[in-house]
Amino acid sequence: MSKTPEWPRIAVVGAGAVGGYFGGMFARAGAPTVFIGRKHFADSVTAGGLVLDKSDDQERIKIDATVDMSAIRDCSLILFCVKANDTLATARQMAALVRPDATVVCLQNGVDNADQVRAAANVVVVPAAVYVAVSVPEPGRVKHLARGDLTIGPPSKRTTELANIFVRAGISCRISDKIEGELWLKLLCNCALNAISALGNVRYGEIVQNADAKQVMQDIVDEVLAVAGAARVVLPGVHDQASGMAAAMEIATQMAG
Fold it and tell me: Rounded to two decimals, what is the model's pTM?
């Protein structure tokens, strides 16, 4: 009988909506997990555990939480979930604390976060395209709305091991040999939807029902594809403006809210 492999010790740097969800899934599965985040979130989790709301149930999960970055010292897997504009400063803060054999997985929006973390912290970094609709209605509570899967890459022994760890925690994880394109594909969808959603105070599902909003989406998609083309980046499954728009529409439908 094969022995169940031990969990790595996991740190979630930037525990909020995305970090809270994925870190919560690991803790729920039994992995030793620590949240490192803002004081109000860490205090709430310390006092009452993480409340994870899913469509079919609600769980309260006991998780260690702190504001102290030194908590990463004993962790071999770090889920890096800070906002993209905090990437470099946070990576520099980690540099003197992270284990030399640790792996950092960037669960962020943007296309160059992994490069920034790698350069600043001198550590192995794996980029991830993250697809999850999740929010923090109040400190210490994470509400899951849709999806919750990752694409990582490129293919290697390390990414295969990582994918297996995510799957053990109930997180769908795919490995891509075109990870740069995957990150740009997520960027395309974010650009096409998020600004309209924020400025109009509307959900994705409302955007795709409005002809004017869809035209703005198409204009944004066209611009992102032009920039990607100039950067010589190929987006998986996207070969023209119509397929780029179809990719954004698919995400809007899946995360209609």
Answer: 0.95
Task: Choose the CATH number for 10-177 among 2.60.120.10, 2.40.50.140, 3.40.47.10, 3.40.50.720.
Answer: 3.40.50.720
Instruction: Express each pLDDT in 42-68 by its tens digit.
Output: 999 999 999 999 888 899 999 999 999
How is 34-82 classified by DSSP, letter by letter?
EEE--HHHHHHHHHH-EEEE-SS-EEEE--EEES-GGGGGG-SEEEE-S
| Length of the chain (residues) | 257
Q: What is d(CA 217, CA 210) in angstroms, rounded to the nearest whole number?
A: 10
Using the 8-state DSSP alphabet, how is residue 31 labeled? -
Q: Which residue bears the tokens 């993209």?
A: 84
How many Å apart are CA 32 and CA 9, to the nearest integer?
5
187-211 per-position pLDDT tens digit: 999 999 999 999 999 999 999 999 9
SS (H, E, C) 180-244: HHHHHHHHHHHHHHHHHHHHHCCCHHHHCCCHHHHHHHHHHHHHHHHHHHHCCCCCCCCCCHHHH
Phi, psi of 103 (to 5 degrees): -120, 130
DSSP letter for 86, please: G
